[in-house]
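Deliverable D4.2, example record:
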Amino acid sequence: MTNVSDFEPKVGAEDIPVSENPSLRHATTGVASQADELYKKRGERDRLQEHLFALQRQQSTLILWVLLILFYLCVVFFAFFIFYPEAFVGKLAILVTFPGNIILVALFISIFLVIYSLQSKRNSQKLEETKNKLDNAEAELIARQQSSLESRKMYWETELIRVSNQAVSELIDNEELYNSVIQRRQEAQDILSQIEQENYVDWPRLQSAITFIHQAIIIEKSQKQSQRQWQMAVIVATVIYIVIVFLPLIFGRNWQLLELIPVYSVPWAIVMWGAAGSLAHILHRFYNQRGRVRFDVELRWVLARPMIGILMSGVSYMAISSGLVVLGSQPPDATEATLAEFGIYAVIGFLAGFSDRFFERIIALLTSAVNLSDSQQQQGQKD
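Output generated by the structure prediction step:
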């Protein structure tokens, strides 16, 4: 098991010997000043790279937020349209049939997309040009600085210390990448230790090892910032879902929850209990999850899980109410059940939305019942 102390630098600026010869001391001082200038430019380039990554994330995140808001607006609009059709039909017809409204909306969206694309393209080009200039300046400084073996060694030792210190703070939570960086750091130290022992030094291999550490730090920073944005999207999606699930507590007095949904023949209450089960499953998963959380994956799951829970609760209700799946105590039809008897269906809807295994068990029983019925029919035809 590796420790954070493995990343602690073995060489510091105060450990570099200063020659008594004035000319050599002046040369060493010149190398150090060039190194300082190089580090400033490298830091500026790193910040620009991170800014470039942030700009790219902002572009994708803006699209995500727009789609997320439109999705939930459609869900809320559909819910109110189902429960209060008389309040929407007349006004909606006026808005849709008035062509000026449609033209204004299309024009606004077009202008927004054009401005956004031009601005993002301009920023990206500016950042790329600046980064290329800094890369050229860095290459020039490295070429001047590495004019002697001693200056090369001094530069790469200091560079290894710098990236190692950054790796401690940025990669400590990513064990796999952390261990890979430790291996590359040890590889770079071994090469530096051979400089005074051998005539040949594998400079490309040394540069590759340190560059790997540097790129790992940049990628980890970018991923952390991206995950924070995905985390906010997950929180917003979950809060909106909670509000939708608890809408019956606010407007329930006007709803006939035991009435069947047209076409699907499933009571509204069963659907709401299935949605509540999905919400409980989402919150339970977040509470029990350990380690690093991939919020980009979790967002897709948060968006899909409510619809899956609603569908599973509806299928479970139809399987049990039709008699294809028999419980220990078969409840009556939901529309004719008493409050106590209806509680059985409420529990079934909640479990179907909460537990995938419960729904899979219902499907297995349903499949067995259908296969048994087909076998009996075939046997009856033979007899």
